[in-house]
């Protein structure tokens, strides 16, 4: 076939979603994943919790690690206020290319910046190169073994403030054991675990962890 699953998903979105309508892009992507091909989107129950966090927090500056095709980037950005923005990091160039198209299709290119680099490098550059002072929301959804490295880098760079939220996907499947132990053991966070279904699989359970930063700024 020569195409990748991500390219087939993008084609389906272009053919079936309403251009400039983020809700339509998300609904269409969920339909594709339920009827055509599964994809690792933070969808349904996970997405509902993410929506609630964004609604409640009203973040100005958001960082996502692990863009994939841009599903959760669109999900976050569709609720952001006019001046708020999301920086989303994707090390895989093929995923990043598809994500940029999905973001454009949703009409959110003014709110979302997709960066095709290694997350460890970009975190160190957020202040100087990306004009970030503090992060209100961090969504961890990239390689699971990198969650702990990157949260420690974010703390080192003093990018969190009291009330900042760190939301982590997949803490059960594939799992992020080192991360869970670290964040739950840290006095700088109040963490809550949510048992949710794995994306598009009604008979599989996963978990997400919401951690509110209460530490020193
Ligand atoms: O690996 C995941 N995501 C990272 C992808 C690569 C990130 C690259 N990158 C971006 C920035 N820095 C590095 C992931 C996997 C699964 C899964 C679980 C079970 C299964 F059988 C198949 C798949 C479910 C998810 O929800 C996921 O998020
Ligand atoms: Mg995930």
Describe the fold and architecture.
There is one protein chain. By secondary structure, the protein is an alpha/beta fold. The protein is 41% helix and 24% strand. It has nine helices and seven strands. Strands 3-2-1-4-5-7-6 form a seven-stranded mixed β-sheet, with helices on both faces. Helix 1 (5-16) packs across helix 2 (22-35), helix 1 (5-16) packs parallel to helix 5 and helix 6 (119-125) packs parallel to helix 7. The radius of gyration is 16 Å and the shape is globular. It starts with a helix and ends with a strand. The protein binds the ligand O=C(NCCCCCn1ccnc1)c1cc(-c2ccc(F)cc2)cc(O)c1O and magnesium ion (MG). Magnesium ion binds at residues 40, 42, 141, 169-170.
Given the structure, what is the number of helices? 9
User: Which runs of at least 5 residues are low in confidence (pLDDT < 50)?
Assistant: none
Specify the biggest β-sheet. 7 strands, mixed
H/E element sequence? HHHEHEHEHEHEHHEE
Distance between termini?
51 Å
- Share of helical residues: 40-55%
Query: Averaged pLDDT, please?
Result: 98
Provide the gyration radius in Å: 16 Å
Overall form: globular
Classify the secondary structure makeup into a structural class: alpha/beta
Give a list of the ligands. ligand 77R, magnesium ion
Total E-strand runs = 7
Give the strand line-up of the largest sheet.
Answer: 3-2-1-4-5-7-6
Give the amount of beta strand, in percent: 15-25%
Question: How do the helices and strands line up, and which of them pair or pack?
Answer:
Layout: H1 5-16, H2 22-35, H3 45-57, E1 61-65, H4 71-77, E2 85-89, H5 93-105, E3 112-115, H6 119-125, E4 135-140, H7 147-156, E5 160-168, H8 171-175, H9 177-185, E6 189-198, E7 201-213
Parallel strand pairs: 1-2, 1-4, 2-3, 4-5
Antiparallel strand pairs: 5-7, 6-7
């Amino acid at each position: 076939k020569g195409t990748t699953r991500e390219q087939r998903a993008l084609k389906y979105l272009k053919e079936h979603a309403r251009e400039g309508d983020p809700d339509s892009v998300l609904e269409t992507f969920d339909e594709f994943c339920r009827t055509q091909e599964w994809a690792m989107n933070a969808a349904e129950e996970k997405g509902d919790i993410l929506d609630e966090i964004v609604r409640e927090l009203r973040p100005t500056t958001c960082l996502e690690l692990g863009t994939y095709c841009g599903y959760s980037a669109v999900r976050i950005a569709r609720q952001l206020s006019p001046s708020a923005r999301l920086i989303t990091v994707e090390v895989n160039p093929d995923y990043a290319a598809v994500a940029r198209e999905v973001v454009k299709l949703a009409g959110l290119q003014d709110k979302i910046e997709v960066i095709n680099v290694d997350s460890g490098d970009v975190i160190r550059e957020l202040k100087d190169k990306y004009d970030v002072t503090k992060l209100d929301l961090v969504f961890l959804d990239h390689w699971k073994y990198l969650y702990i490295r990157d949260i420690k880098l974010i703390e080192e760079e003093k990018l969190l403030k009291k009330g900042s939220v760190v939301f982590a996907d997949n803490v059960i499947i594939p799992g992020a054991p080192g991360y869970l132990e670290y964040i739950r053991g840290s006095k700088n966070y109040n963490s809550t675990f949510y048992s949710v279904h794995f994306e598009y699989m009604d008979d599989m359970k996963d978990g997400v962890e919401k951690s509110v930063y209460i530490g020193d700024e």
